[in-house]
Amino acid sequence: MSFYNQGHLGYYKGGKAVVDYYNQEITRRREKYPFEINDKYVDYVSEMNQNGYCVIKDFFEKDTLLRLREETERLFKEQDLDKVQWSQNANHLQVKKPFINTETAIEIAFDQRLIDIATIFFNCVPGIGTFNLRLSEANNKPTEGTNMFHRDFNSPVKIMKFFFYLTDVGLENGPFTYVQGSNREMPIHWDRYHRWPDKEIESIYGKERVKHLTANVGDMIIGTTNGFHKGLKVQKGRRIMYTINFLIHPEMEGSRIETARPRFHIRQEDYDKLSAAQKPVADFLIRE
User: Could you count the other beta carbons within 10 Å of the beta carbon of residue 168?
Assistant: First the structure.
C-alpha cells in the first residue's frame, strides 16, 4: 500500500491552491496576534501529532460539564424547534447556536487552557469555527453519516477539535473512534469515498489501529480530524457530546476556498465581555 504523508500535496483535498491559502492565512494571523507557548501542554499536542488524538483524564471541571448537560437536556425535553433540530436522518438531536441557547457552552469554549493547547498545535492564535452539542441514542437505523469513517475538510491543512463527553461513554455508548496515525499517512486513493466502510479501513491500516476513545465526564479528548475518524454508533443508552473546532481561517465546505466564511454565532454582549486575549479566538464567529 502506498501512502501520502503531510509533506505531499496529494494528502490535501484541493492540493496546492488550498495549501497556499492556508499558509497565507496563518502568516496573517501570526503577524496580527503575538502569542506565547505554554509548555505545560506541549506533551498533549505531541501525542496528538503522533497518534492523531490524545485522551486527557480528569482535565476539566465536572461541575461545569454537568451544568452544560443539564441545560442541554432541558432544551431537548422542551423540543423548541427554534433551539434544537434533528440531523443526519434524525440520528442525532442537536442544539442550534449553542453559544446563544446555553449559558455554559461559551464558558467552556473560551477556557484559556483550550486556547493554549490550540495555540501550541497551530503555533499561532487560532479561532473557533463550529461547535456542536448533540445527543445520540441507540436505534435500529442504518449506519451512515458521521458514524462512518471520514476526514474533515473544514480546513485544508490543519484543524483540531476538542471533545467533551457530557455522559460517561463506554464501548456501547458510541465513543469517538480514530484510526491511529492516519493523520500522518493517507492511502493514495483516500478520496475513493467520502464515507469509508470499516472493512476497507481495517484492510488498509490494520484493525489494531482503530481506537475507540472511551472516556468519562471530566476527561477531554483532542484530535486532529484530518485523519480518519467516526463516532461509533450508539448500541446502548445514549451519548451527549460537545465538540469545538479550532482553525486559522473561517471554516470551509469541502476544502473549497470560496466557501470560507463564518457560520456559527456569538452574542455581541458576550463577545464584548471577552478579554483582549480571547477576542481573536472569536474572529470567525457571527456576532448578533
Answer: 14
Q: Count of H helices and E strands in the chain?
A: 8, 14
Q: What is the pTM of this model?
A: 0.96
Ordered per-residue pLDDT tens for the chain, 288 residues: 899 999 999 999 999 999 999 999 999 999 999 999 999 999 999 999 999 999 999 999 999 999 999 999 999 999 898 999 988 777 789 999 999 999 999 999 999 999 999 999 999 999 999 999 999 999 888 888 889 999 999 998 999 999 999 999 999 999 999 999 999 999 999 999 999 999 999 999 999 999 999 999 999 999 999 999 999 999 999 999 999 999 999 999 988 999 999 999 999 999 999 999 999 999 999 999
| Residue ranges of domains in the chain, CATH in brackets | 3-60+109-280 (2.60.120)
Listed residue (233, 229, 213, 228) closest to 91, CA to CA: 233
Angle between helices 42-51 and 112-122 (to 10 degrees): 50
36 with 124: CB under 8 angstroms? Answer: no
